[in-house]
């Protein structure tokens, strides 16, 4: 994603619509992951240098576009500028992973 400025926020969550070309069996689910980082600088050359935290909580059996659960961003990302990445690592067997309507919702701190 582009940089997400979460300064002044008390919490944030990610949601999106997604589908797979077919249900992903348990042994292949680790190929489809979502990550968030607060020390990535937006430069593709530095992806491996950043610290990434995995987000979990979506279903691997959606073959028609479905809304993900609201995935809470980790507390260490709140108040920071962060990036979200979808990682798709293929092996001998792969499926198409389509995404659309990505939304980040954040709540501001109330003093």
Description:
With about 110 residues, the chain is mainly β. The strands form two sheets. A four-stranded antiparallel β-sheet has the order 1-7-3-4, with no helix packed on it. Strands 2, 5, 6 and 8 form a four-stranded antiparallel β-sheet that branches. The radius of gyration is 15 Å and the shape is globular. The model has no long low-confidence stretch (mean pLDDT about 90).
Defining key terms:
111 residues; mainly beta; 4-stranded antiparallel β-sheet; 0% helix; 42% strand; globular
SSE order and pairing:
Layout: E1 4-5, E2 9-20, E3 32-37, E4 53-55, E5 66-67, E6 71-72, E7 81-88, E8 97-108
Antiparallel strand pairs: 1-7, 2-5, 2-6, 2-8, 3-4, 3-7
Number of strands: 8
Radius of gyration: 15 Å
* Beta fraction: 35-45%
- Uncertain parts: none
Structural category is mainly beta
In which range does the helix fraction lie? under 10%
Number of helices: 0
Q: Measure the end-to-end span.
A: 30 Å
Q: Order of strands across the biggest sheet?
A: 1-7-3-4
| Overall mean confidence score, pLDDT | 89
Overall morphology: globular
Main β sheet profile: 4 strands, antiparallel
Series of secondary-structure elements, N-terminal to C-terminal: EEEEEEEE
């Amino acid at each position: 994603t582009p940089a997400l400025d979460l300064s002044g926020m008390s919490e944030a969550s990610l949601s999106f619509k997604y589908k797979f070309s077919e249900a992903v069996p348990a042994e292949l689910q680790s190929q489809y992951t979502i990550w968030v980082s607060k020390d990535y600088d937006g430069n593709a050359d530095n992806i491996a240098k950043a610290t990434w935290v995995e987000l979990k909580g979506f279903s691997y059996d959606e073959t028609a576009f479905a809304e993900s659960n609201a995935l809470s961003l980790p507390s260490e990302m709140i108040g920071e500028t962060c990036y979200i990445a979808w990682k798709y690592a293929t092996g001998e067997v792969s499926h198409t992973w389509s995404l659309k309507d990505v939304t980040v919702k954040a709540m501001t701190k109330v003093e």
